[in-house]
Design goal:
- This protein is mainly alpha-helical.
- The protein contains five helices and two strands.
- The protein has one domain: Skp domain (Protein Binding, DinI Protein, Chain A, 2-Layer Sandwich).
- The chain has a two-stranded parallel sheet.
- The longest helix has 54 residues.
- It is rod-shaped, with a radius of gyration of 31 Å.
- The N and C termini lie far apart (73 Å).
Length: 181
């Protein structure tokens, strides 16, 4: 009985081994790599999103600089007039200084949160659209597998597998056709 099972297993192994070149030829894989970070940053839509973010950051910085100057001015007044002011006036200025400092810190935190949220919204939308373009390329060109070529994840890959530039080009042209910019 053991000999029959052993012979059957050996026969199955030889059959699989003989068929493997045929299976390998039919199952040839076409693999591509896409650097999503590069695609987001170098696409027209990504460049526009980056410019929008920089504009928001600049506005926030201007507002913060104004508040910072007001705090510095009040601090200077406190230092110069500290000995001359009455206890009540000094206490009032110190409270105002503390209030302005807390507002400034709150504004910094709120600004950072708003910028991160806005960046996430913009890049999230772009990445979603890029994934659609990548799926289209995969289907059109019969890719078996397309991986994200994120730094640190793919240790080595032949440069010929990288289709990032093709994805950017198709993404930008599809946005022009759809009227997005």
């Amino acid at each position: 009985m053991k000999k029959v099972i052993l012979m059957g297993a050996l026969g199955l192994f030889l059959l699989v081994l003989a068929a493997s070149p045929v299976l390998a030829a039919e199952a040839a894989m076409k693999v591509g790599l896409v650097d999503l970070f590069k695609a987001v940053n170098e696409s027209e839509q990504g460049k526009k999103a980056k410019a929008d973010l920089e504009s928001i950051i600049k506005d926030k910085q201007t507002s913060l600089e104004d508040k910072g100057k007001a705090i510095e001015k009040l601090k200077g007044e406190l230092e110069k007039q500290g000995g001359v002011l009455s206890a009540e006036a000094k206490k009032s200025k110190e409270e105002e200084f503390e209030r302005l400092t807390r507002e400034y810190q709150r504004t910094v935190t709120d600004s950072q949160t708003e910028v991160r949220k806005r960046e996430s919204e913009l890049t999230g939308r772009i990445v979603k659209d890029l994934r659609t373009v990548i799926a289209g390329i995969a289907q059109e060109e019969q890719y078996t597998l397309i991986l994200e070529n994120a730094e640190g994840l793919v240790l080595f890959a032949d440069k010929s597998l990288d289709i990032t530039d093709k994805v950017i080009k198709k993404f930008d042209s599809s946005n022009h056709k759809n009227g997005k910019k």
